[in-house]
Amino acid sequence: MDVHVTNDSAQFDAAAASFLEADPVRNTVLLTILDTLRAGGGYDDDDPWFAWAHVEDVVVGAALRTPPYKVALSGMSADAADALGHRLASYDLPGAFGDLATVATFAAGANRQHAVNMHEIQHMLTEVKPPPSVPGAARPYAGTDADVYVRWDADFAAEAGVTRSANPLGSLHTRVSSGGGLWLWDVDDLPVAMCGRSAPVCGVPRIGPVWTPPEHRRRGYAAALTAFVCSEALAEGARACTLFADAANPTSNGVYLRIGFVPAGETVEAIFTSTA
């Protein structure tokens, strides 16, 4: 098994896109990043890198990192994860995102210890179950919402424990310009919740972030807005929607199950430390 590493997203695209597209739900994070780069989007810090393991000309695993974010790992065999870890051991590897077995094997191959920072359930939806009616209505994000979005994006990242873009408005612009979007739920002209959506890749958009400020929770706004965003995506031709929810948050998982999502797998985000 051989591993190739490059800073050229086009080279990675040519080599690994078909492999990733064979499972667009499981590989949604890598595919969305690749789609963003195809559309001319960039990232905050150092140049990204891309890697794939292959047996002769057959790709069997892929990994990429767009700093400051952790390594994103595709679905793959243990042999592929170990080979990628060995090849990337000299790189800056703060952690990784993927299924637990793959993350653990990749970390061991890279001579790193790993500690699970977040355990998430990946959900998939093909048909929306309308939630109970609540006051208000959905609308697309507008430029006048910039201050609200920046504040809510920071609050979401702090509560969820996820890495935040250093340029949230720039990241949002890239998402919208590449075919994704952001919607708000308004009650009496007051925004009370937000829900984002990536551009569909292979017919599968990823939903998120979904955020309701604490003072507006438990009123059904997030459920209504998420159902709306998914319904719009399906009406526009998506064959499924996917999202990740913290496994330790039964409230959010319950909301998603009630509007038609079903569990499709489990993932972890892990922090790495050197074993040396």
Write up this protein.
It is a single chain. With 276 residues, this protein is of the alpha+beta class. It has eight helices and twelve strands. An eight-stranded mixed β-sheet has the order 1-2-3-4-5-12-6-11, sandwiched between helices. A four-stranded antiparallel β-sheet has the order 7-8-9-10, with helices on both faces. Helix 3 links the parallel strand 4 (71-73) and strand 5. It starts with a strand and ends with a strand.
Structure keywords:
eight-stranded mixed β-sheet, alpha+beta, 8 helices, 276 residues
Helix count, DSSP H or I runs of 4 or more residues: 8
Spatial strand sequence of the major β-sheet: 1-2-3-4-5-12-6-11
The secondary-structure class comes to alpha+beta
Radius of gyration: 19 Å
- Tally of extended strands? 12
Shape: globular
Strand content: 25-35%
Quaternary arrangement of the chains shown? single chain
Helix content: 25-40%
**Cα end-to-end separation:** 26 Å
Q: Uncertain regions: pLDDT < 50 for 5+ in a row?
A: none
Characterize the main sheet: 8 strands, mixed
Mean pLDDT: 94
Order of helices and strands: EHHEEEHEHEEHHEEEHEHE
Layout of strands and helices, then pairs:
Elements: E1 2-6, H1 9-21, H2 28-38, E2 49-55, E3 58-65, E4 71-73, H3 78-87, E5 95-98, H4 100-109, E6 112-125, E7 137-140, H5 146-160, H6 168-177, E8 181-187, E9 190-197, E10 207-211, H7 221-235, E11 241-246, H8 250-258, E12 262-274
Parallel strand pairs: 4-5
Antiparallel strand pairs: 1-2, 2-3, 3-4, 5-12, 6-11, 6-12, 7-8, 8-9, 9-10
Helix pairs in contact: 1-2, 3-4
